[in-house]
Structures are given as C-alpha cells and as structure tokens.
Specification:
The complex is a heterotrimer. By secondary structure, chain A is an alpha/beta fold. Chain A contains nine helices and five strands; from the N terminus they run αααααββαβαβαβα. The chains are: A alpha/beta, B alpha/beta, C alpha+beta. The interface between A and B is medium-sized, with 15 and 15 residues.
Chain lengths: 275, 128, 136
C-alpha cells in the first residue's frame, strides 16, 4: 500500500463507504468536508504505517495521526455527532482496508490472515481514540454549560443607590455560595452599597447547611461595612430553621422583599412617602 | 522593625497597614497610638487594611487589642478596606473581630466615627 | 497513584521565616492557577500553621509539594515541629475565640480553609500537620 495510486483508490473506496453508511450525517457535515478530512487522515495514516510499526500508536510516528484524529473527533462531538457516528470514521476505513487486503492477498490465505489481524488491531486502537476524545470533549462542553448557568443564575441587582439585591433561586450549594459571596462583595466595593438584600423565596430547601452558607455570606458582607437583610423566609421554614438550632441573628430577617426594601431605605437615610 | 505612620484628620487617627506587622512592630504601633490619642485627644481610630492580602488570627488579635486599648482611652476604632478574598477567608477562619466596626473605606470610617462621637456627646449631654 | 512533582523544604526558625513561607506559597499557588480566594485561604492557613510551629512548637519544618494525581492537581503541605505536642487534639481544633485573651491557635480555622487535613501529635514528641488544597 505504498504507491500513490493505491492511496487514491483506497480513499475512493473509503469515502464511498462513509457516504453509504447509515451513520452519515449530511445535516452536520458537508460531503466536501468529509472528503477533505478523509484525505488528510489517510495521508497521515499511510505515512505513519509505512514506517513499519503497526502495533503501537503511542510512538512519535503516530503522533500526527492521533493528534489529527483527536481534532476530528473533538469537532464531531461539538457538532452533535453521536459517539458511533464519530467512530464510523475509523471503522469504515478499517472495512475498506480489509477489503483491499482481501483482493491483494487472495492467493495467500496465511498472509491475509496475519495482515488482517494486524490492521484490525491497529485501527481498533485508533477507533478507541475517537471514543476517548469524544467523551472528553462532551464532558468539557457540559462543564462549560454548567459554569454559564451558575454565572447567570444569581445576578446581583443594584436596585437603588447603595442597595443591592440577590434573588437566589433553586439549590444553594457551597460552590454557588462561593460565587454569590464573591459577586456580592465585588458589587459592594463597586457601588459602595450599604445594604444587601438576600431573597430566598426561590430557594428550594432551607436547611442547616444552606443557612450556614447564607450566614457565611452575611458575615463577609458585614466585614465590608454593609448589612445583610434576609427576605422571603416562609413561616414554616423559619420554624424549622429555629428548631434546627440555626442562629440567624447576624442577618436582619424580613418577611418580604418589600419589608426588606423599607428597612434598607431607612438604613441609608430615606423615607418612602406617598405623593 | 518598621514604624507605621499615624495620620491625624480632625479628631481621628488613621493607621494604614501596608504589610504584615510582626510582634515588635505591633507593640510599637499600639504604644504609639495610645500616646498619640493621649496627646491629641483623638476620639477615633481607623485601621486601614486594603493593602493586606491576608488577615490571620495574629493580625486579628492586634486589631482587637488596638480596639480595646483605644476604647480605654475613649476612642472608637473602625476597620476599613478589608478585601473580598480576605473577608471570605476571615469568615471561614472563624475570626469574629467582635466590637470592631467595619467599613468599606476611610471616608465611610470618618462618617461612622463622627456619628459615634455625636452619639456619645448626646448621651453625655442627656446625662447632665 | 500520586505523582509528586516539585517539592520544597522550608525551615521555620524565626518570625521572618513566617513571611517568606507565605510568599513562597503565594507564588506557587499563583503559578498553579488557584483563584485569588483560594490563594488567600492557602496563605492564611500557612500563616496559622507555621506560627503555631514557631510559637508552640519551638520551630519546625514545612514541606511544600506540588501534587498531581491525574485528574486532580493541588498543593500538599506538611508542617512538622518537635515541640511539646498537643495533649487534646479535639479540643485544640475547637475555635478558641473568646472575648478575652487569646484568639485560639488557628488550628480549627486552618482545617476549614484547606481541603484535606490531618494532624498527628504526641505529647513530648511534637506535632505534624499534613494538608492538601486542590484545584477545582
């Protein structure tokens, strides 16, 4: 398989096989891109395999092949291909090469057998690389999405000069508390806020752990010269929290956001009057 | 040992901690402060910490002591400029810094001290 | 399997050592990519632990190691002294902050600032604290 002609022939067979495959994703990738990727990969693969090593893909010979394969798999993972659809790239090549071998060594069954096994093993290893890279890329994507959601989920709002508010919605774990605390403190420094209203109406579960996180945040806010007002504790929740022995005294509790706002205005020296 | 300068603005003294003070420097600072309070009749002390990248229990003790000593000489103490990461760490460390007022910056510190001073004056005049 | 990368041994003999250890750990944590808050947690814990070793332990040694366990990267700290040791470790770990004199010895606080924390001490034989801070 060293001549340029054979390479071309193999390429055609391989591309045809990919197009004929039921895992083809014409919606995610153009035929031209598919062909180009195949040309690139086949070239690198033949370059590496013709050096004689057909067993170890960890060697320097195969580095360009593996790197290229990772790139291709990563792109497919991001584009939305399934793992199988991504792996088809390599496995269809295997089929095509094996077909080639069968024709070449028709008359020497023993050689055919040995070569078949060798090439199979080699391409299986490369196939596994695509799976690995696929999984890794998906994990990274999910993590990035999670980070984005985390960022967006608790905006700090400057509702009045010197008054900021944080509506917390959903689950408050230590990671999220970290983020909220840091953002709150930064906002206080930026705006010189004197009151920070933390609204927990939307907090799913207000147990001792969550309360601890909130108290921690309140204490840090206090160190920056501001006060933390806690609003939105439902009566049942307030009862439970007290029974659990949690000390919420470092926070100023108010039933509703409106009450919290009234307190905040008074704190910064304002009074709300009807016109 | 480095000597920490003490600034005077009106009836308030401002001490800006630029680095971690060691034992000797801390003791020197405390004695200098007390002397200055006595000499000038200052009624407020602002400890400014924005340059500190860390406050540990040792530093907390220094701040506490300054606060108590100043109080014994009729001066209120206010701590200003704690950085966010330092604030978070302080809370996790569990340092309470009780009886120490904390403010965002020196300006707020002066405002608070003026208010506290006025309160004391009001209390005094009420008691007369 | 843990692969320990670079390590450094710093002696804690006098007050200036407390400052240099902090700077060393600060620089290392910046290099390793720790967030500002985590950097602050690290140097604060280091300050507490090395001061303990100096003040209560009569001096000691801190070993700082960059650790790589594959998925996790972090810093390993070992602070050891040959002082009188701690009689009641559980008591020592409690926050000793009173409105009066001492502000405790920062042991419990340091534990909260770090991710993994082990302390072994025998009266008369000294104290060793081993702790880890991992990158998220």
């Amino acid at each position: 398989m060293n001549s340029g002609l054979k390479e071309k022939e193999l390429l055609e067979i391989w591309v045809k096989a990919q197009i004929a495959s039921e895992t083809l994703r014409e919606d995610l990738m153009s035929m031209e891109d598919l062909r180009n990727e195949s040309i690139l990969f086949l070239r690198e693969f033949i370059k590496a395999s013709s050096k004689g090593n057909l067993t170890d893909i960890g060697t320097a010979d195969y580095k360009p092949v593996v790197t290229l394969l990772r790139k291709i798999s990563g792109n497919r993972a991001q584009a939305g291909f399934t793992p199988s659809e991504t792996a088809t790239f390599v496995f269809s090549l295997k089929d095509s090469i094996l077909g080639f071998l069968q024709a070449e060594y028709k008359s020497s069954p023993e050689i055919l057998s040995t070569e078949t096994i060798r090439i199979s093993k080699l391409l299986d290893k490369l196939g596994l690389v695509t799976f690995e890279e696929y999984a890794r890329t998906r994990d990274e994507l999910v993590k990035d999405q999670q980070d984005s959601i985390l960022e967006m989920s608790s905006p700090i709002i400057l509702i009045w000069e010197k008054i900021i508010a944080v509506p917390i919605i959903g689950i408050l774990d230590s990671k999220r508390t970290q983020l909220i605390m840091e953002n709150c403190l930064q906002k206080i420094i930026q705006t010189g806020a004197k009151v920070c209203i933390i609204d927990v109406t939307g907090v799913a579960v207000l147990d001792t752990l969550v309360s601890t996180h909130i108290i921690k945040t309140a204490n840090a806010i206090r160190l920056l010269g501001a006060e933390a007002v806690l609003t939105g504790i439902r009566p049942e929740v307030a009862q439970t929290v007290v029974h659990l022995g949690v000390d919420l005294s470092s926070l100023i509790p108010r039933a509703t956001m409106a009450d919290g706002l009234e307190y905040a205005f008074r704190k910064i020296g304002f009074q709300v009057n009807k016109r | 040992m480095q000597k920490i300068p003490i600034l005077k603005i009106g009836k308030n003294l401002i001490v800006s901690l630029q680095f971690d003070v060691d034992d000797k420097t801390a003791l020197q600072l405390q004695s200098d402060l007390l002397q200055t309070i006595s000499k000038t009749g200052a009624t407020g002390v602002i400890i400014e910490l924005s340059a500190l990248d860390m406050v540990d229990s040792f530093m907390g003790r220094i701040i506490s002591d300054i606060s108590k000593m100043s109080a014994s000489m009729n001066a209120n103490t206010v701590v200003a400029g704690i950085q966010p990461s330092v604030a978070i760490t302080l809370v996790e460390l569990g340092l309470k810094l009780e009886q120490v007022h904390t403010v965002l910056n020196i300006e707020d510190g002066i405002e608070l001290l003026t208010k506290l001073d006025r309160q004391i004056e009001n209390d005094d005049s009420e008691n007369q | 399997m843990m692969i320990l990368k670079t390590s450094n041994i710093i002696s804690i003999r006098e007050e200036t050592d407390l400052i240099s250890t902090r700077h060393y750990v600060r620089n290392l944590s910046i290099q390793m990519g720790f967030s500002l808050v985590d950097q602050t947690r690290l140097i604060t814990a280091v300050s507490e632990l090395t001061r303990n070793a100096l003040v209560y332990g009569g001096g000691g040694i801190m070993t700082v190691v960059m650790v790589d366990t594959g998925p996790r990267h972090g810093i390993k700290l070992i602070i050891a002294d040959k002082g009188p040791g701690i009689v009641d470790i559980d008591l020592a770990l409690q926050d000793g902050y009173s409105t009066g004199h001492g502000l405790g010895n920062g042991l419990g606080g340091s534990k909260r600032l770090l991710d993994e924390f082990e302390i072994s001490s025998e009266p008369g034989k000294g104290t060793t604290v081993t702790a880890y801070k991992w990158l998220p």
